[in-house]
Amino acid sequence: MTNLITTTWLGNMKFESTNPSGHNLFIDAGPENDGNGEGYRPKALMLSALAGCSGLDVASLIKKMKLDVSDFKIDIEANLTEEHPKFYDKVAMHFHFYGDNLSEKKLQKAVDLSVEKYCGVMEMFRQFATLTIETHFHKK
After folding, report:
1. CATH number at residue 92
2. For the residues of 66-93, what is the DSSP string, one character each?
3. Do you know which InterPro entries this protein is assigned to (predicted)?
4. Nearest to 88 by CA among 47, 116, 32, 28
5. Mind listing the pLDDT tens digit for each residue in 41-86?
6. What is the largest CA-CA distance in the chain?
7. Is 110 exposed, middle or buried (CB count within 10 Å of its CB: 0-12, 13-18, 19+)?
8. Residue 119, exposed/middle/buried by CB under 10 A (0-12, 13-18, 19+)?
9. Are residues 112 and 55 in the same domain?
10. First-to-final CA distance of the chain
């Protein structure tokens, strides 16, 4: 399957990018790079894609396993290299689950399945970055 994304320059440092979902997004540089900060930063968008990909896997597994989870979030800390072209060489993902009845073992299995088997964006990141994954459980 091939995806077609069209990214159109809107002037200055701003672009609009299409998505197969039909929802477009804006990309822009910050003021420090002559932009107006009216859109997503490309490298940070990659981190959102990583969290989103894995998050969708885990949410699907939570539903399939009928797990009781009040809230769920993913924090990502990524180290950007200093030399050009700058890229993420170290990425730490923190999965946070909140609830009174968390099945820690099953939730850990859901995270592991996403990390090891399902998340294609994770596999792409493995080509250039060292990934560390941590799972945190919080009683509501």
Report:
1. 3.30.300.20
2. T---SEEEEEEEEEEPSSSSP-EEEEEE
3. KH_dom-like_a/b, OsmC/Ohr_fam, OsmC/Ohrsf
4. 47
5. 999 999 999 999 999 999 999 999 999 999 999 999 999 999 999 9
6. 51
7. buried
8. buried
9. yes
10. 42
Q: What average pLDDT score do residues 7-24 get?
A: 96
Given the structure tokens 């596999």, which residue do they identify?
123
The answer to whether 46 touches 88, Cβ cutoff 8 Å, is yes
Residue 76 has a pLDDT of 98
What does the block give as tokens for 120? Answer: 């294609």
User: Count of domains in the chain?
Assistant: 2
Q: Which two tokens stand for residue 54?
A: 């894995």
Give yes or no: residues 54 and 102 share one domain. yes
Taking residue 99's Cβ as centre, other Cβ atoms within 10 Å add up to 17
Take residue 96 and report the two structure tokens written for it: 């946070």
Predicted TM-score of the model (pTM): 0.94
The structure tokens listed for 136 are 């945190």
pLDDT for the residue 140: 77
The answer to whether the CB of 28 falls within 8 A of the CB of 35 is: yes
Q: In what order do the strands lie in the sheet with 88-98?
A: 71-80, 88-98, 130-138
What range does the domain containing 28 cover?
1-40
